[in-house]
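The following block was generated as part of the benchmark described in Methods. Ligand: 6-diazenyl-5-OXO-L-norleucine.
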Amino acid sequence: MDYSKVLQEIKEEIATFKNTGKVATYIPELGKVDPSKFGVYLQCTDGNGYGLGDSLDCFSIQSISKVLSLALALKLKGKEVWKRIGVEPSGDPFNSLVQLEYEKGIPRNPFINAGALVVADILISELENPKEDLLQFVRNIAEDQSVEYDEKVAASEMEHKFRNASLTHLMKDFGNIKNNVDDVLDFYFHQCSIAMNCKQLTQAFTIFLNYGKYDLSKEAAVLDPILAKRINALMLTCGFYDESGEFAFTVGLPGKSGVGGGIVALHPRYYSVAVWSPPLNKNGNSELGMKVLELLTTKTEISVF
Ligand code: DON
């Protein structure tokens, strides 16, 4: 497959794309990002990588971090995690409170905010230096020790914490948060603030390729094959909140979005791919990013289906 040619064709096709999306402003620091930024990076399992546009510019990975924190929590706690979080799509927005009340504080899945907050709580209990250890895990799997938290983004989100604070307090009341609520929020906002570029993200997500056996040199990061399988399944069914069905329908790959405008997707056998374009559709997913990934699987005729 000539991926370089495919990416060039995609670039030409999206030149006339009418983007109706809006950059997220509910975290004020994210609202400062240039909406015209656009990058793609594709990392193939044969070792070749292809970049386009601003693929080496760092951006706030936001909810994409939920996949990486889950991978670490599962490595540390295994099946125990599923006693506190479900594995079903929610069909609701990422920050919705409604299901939590009648499902007694057990989040539907680890990729909605409530689920990621429980994962954060698990990591705080398990890790000696939670923020340092999570960052080191991400640096190791990205094979890049320069990856950092963006303290301004983390502080900006803490200032506007009210909905995530409500979710965490409600789950604390149900006994599903063990640590101090503000510690959980501080850890969660830091994980969301991680700044990475498309290339680093595709590298990090190679841990989910080939049943976790793509790159055995990443010792600490290598995932048990069963975990790679399960996390990919969750990305497919829950990675885009109330738009997960639409993403499977139009793109056909497991993936995860973030309100920073990034999307990472992967074909378990062939590649991981990251796209970044800040304007979001009404469900909080990058509008152009979804289009690019649709074109990628359509043109290559490679998707999980
Ligand atoms: O908790 C929040 O609202 C953000 N830190 C992350 C939300 C997010 O990225 C949703 N994804 N599309």
